[in-house]
Amino acid sequence: MKIKYIIAPLVMAFMFFTSTNVGFTVPLQEDEGFTESQQRTASKSIGFSPVSQELHLTPGEPYTDKVTVWHQAEGDMEYTITIRGFKQIEGYPGTAVLLSEEEEMASTTSAASWFRIETTEVVVPPNHNFELNYLIEVPEDAASGEYYAQIFFHSEQERLPAQDTTMAYSNIAGGPTFLIRTGDELDEDISLLEFQTTHKFYENPDITFNTSLQNIGNVHVKPTGIIVLTNMFGQELATIEFNPTRKALIRDSVATYISEWESNYLLTDEGKLAIGPITAELTLYYKSESPGYHPITAETDFWIFQWKLALAILGAIVLLVWTTKAIKKPKKVKVEDVKQEEAKVHIVEDTPMKEDNEMPTEEKKDSF
Fold first, then answer.
1. What pLDDT does residue 354 have?
2. How do residues 250-266 score in pLDDT, each as one tens digit?
3. One domain, residues 202 and 125
4. Could you list the residue range(s) of the whole structural domain that residue 233 is in?
5. What is the pTM of this model?
6. Are residues 121 and 205 in the same domain?
7. Is residue 325 part of a domain?
8. What is the CATH number for 256?
9. In the predicted model, is pLDDT for residue 21 greater than 50?
10. Same structural domain, 173 and 202
């Protein structure tokens, strides 16, 4: 009994354009009967050049070129060659996934139907290469904008498991990707949907920013910029680079870019306090033709407050105040003791002095 385990039309296991270009990546996905290790081994058995193509074509004018493919595994390998459009993985910039057959039919951004190739199947001996010629014909009524396609190579291998049941697994080994621009009305435009921290209160300077963007233009963009942090005294604490790896956002897509700021101390090297209310200001640039034109700005606030430390300090202050008052508190004097002291003073004042009661001897003699 022969059972097939086919990986969904899925994945481009390669860097889609270098860092100077688009920068899409797609991770391999594991499927039943075909482990991730097997997928990676099979993917490494094939190589191709160029890895990607970014073209600006005129509707109605044919374009021809070729892809060089080499086979590195042991033994002959049969490849089925397919062309499919792709889309961005929802929410994740710099990624892409192949369209299903149903999605391909409904897609308005796929360029797969514009391709013509000389063969759809090829058997390659080990350590050999072959050239695949292709033709691209952009329809004359194609709207201005950017369209996407990938040539990928699908191979099937059989193995015999312990239970003597013959199984087959398949692998999409990848292939060159194409960004095809056509027309003159190309629009780079994005909309900022959200700029927030993951929390409003932090105990330590370990902050994560989420910036959600929507591409509302008709070509891909690679937004860049900075996030500036200032404390409650208006002092600049840090400057964070936005999208340093230049992950792309393709047309008709939404993605969330993650930026992080982490510090081990509440006091910066310049002696500025990273505590209390902090303001983060975002400035984005996304136009390739005029990078500084029409920047997008946004602002959000959050708090850095070590409440456990604050409670400990507050408790220490309360204890210190209570102890100080207890030490300085005057001794309470009884009312009876006060009255006795006043009586003694009164008696002393009313008692005549000895000198006043007795007359001198000489005066007494004269009085007789």
1. 52
2. 999 999 999 999 887 77
3. no
4. 190-308
5. 0.70
6. no
7. no
8. 2.60.40.10
9. no
10. no
Q: How many domains in the chain?
A: 2
- Domain assignment present for 269: yes
Q: How far apart are CA 282 and CA 29, in angstroms?
A: 34
Q: Do 165 and 206 share a domain, yes or no?
A: no
Residues across the chain: 368
One domain, residues 132 and 275:
no
Residues 270, 229 contacting (CB under 8 angstroms): no
